[in-house]
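Many introductory courses stop at the sequence. We go one step further.
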Amino acid sequence: DGQYVVNPQYDAAGAFSEGRAAVKLKRRWGYIDKSSTVIIPSQFETAGEFSEGLAAIELGDRWGFIDLSGKIVINPQFDKAEAFSCSLAAIKMNRRWGFIDKNGKIVINPQFEEVRPFVKGVAPVRIGSRWGFVDIAGKIVVNPQFDGADAFAEDLASVKLAGRWGFVDKNGKYVINPQFDEAASFNEGLARVKVSRKTGYVDENGRYVWNPTN
């Protein structure tokens, strides 16, 4: 009915995830539950969404992870950290990205200029100016060759080559050839694409189900 579940009282707020939402009060972030009860008091410089029971937080200019109770389970030690997926989280050290497990152990050494999250055991990574894909052991499974790449969704990943976006499978084989100016990830069997400033939707075979329109 449009009624407030959490009354406006915070300087900023994130989305709910795993029953918690990050909220900012007096330049510090904490977490509330859906009843607006403060579960984790405001104390962090930055606070991410919970994923797989953990959230990345910034404390004293270093990033670590807390559990749902607010307990620090991976000490702040990284230059930057992202959310866990496939039991791995991207972390940045000395201007390079790698991945850690939930014990804080580095399982893929920081070596990449950029990374995206793991989905079904595969993650996009940038080496130099080219994007490829690695598995959870850090092995390159699709050689760096693309100008851009997004995480897999519904077994396809959007990739950019020579200014055009298309979609590849987990072997790096094109399923939909590069032809779009923009391409969003697949969701429920469809992907939003843009051609000549017009937006349409394609299915997983690259067929338009909604032709591009303004």
